[in-house]
């Protein structure tokens, strides 16, 4: 099921364009997981997202999507971006269980937490 013109919510997998990009960033039209809540996404028109790739490398910051998901692959949790979901024509395709979102946020927290 693909939905458009609906604000994406945390845990949604969406298809959208990552272009323009530079360097080692993911590019092209691809799936991404939404990490920010619907209320924020709807009000601001942006959403925090991480790209999904089907090229699994066993990298420590990869989070595998569940088999029941309509998209195969892993979330690249270290490539978080704030994206204009309307301008990039985001289409919601499915939603993942909370434990996947928690895993992605946990890996992201490792990168963002200041060591004591």
How many domain regions? 1
Helix amount: 10-25%
Q: Tell the overall outline.
A: globular
Q: Got a strand count?
A: 7
| Rg from alpha-carbon coordinates | 13 Å
**Termini gap:** 45 Å
The level 1 CATH classification is: Mainly Beta
- Structural class by secondary-structure content: alpha+beta
Q: Give the helix tally.
A: 2
What is the compact description of this entry?
With 116 residues, the chain is α+β, with helices and mostly antiparallel strands. The protein contains two helices and seven strands, in the order E-E-H-E-E-E-E-E-H.
List the topology elements:
Layout: E1 12-17, E2 29-34, H1 38-44, E3 46-53, E4 62-64, E5 74-76, E6 81-84, E7 91-95, H2 98-112
Antiparallel strand pairs: 1-2, 1-7, 2-3, 3-5, 3-6, 4-5
Key features?
2 helices; 116 residues; SH3 type barrels; seven-stranded antiparallel sheet; alpha+beta; globular
What does this structure look like?
The chain is globular. The mean pLDDT is 91. It has one domain: SH3 type barrels. It is α+β, with helices and mostly antiparallel strands and 116 residues long. It has helices spanning 38-44, 98-112, and strands spanning 12-17, 29-34, 46-53, 62-64, 74-76, 81-84, 91-95. Strands 1, 2, 3, 4, 5, 6 and 7 form a 7-stranded antiparallel beta sheet that branches.
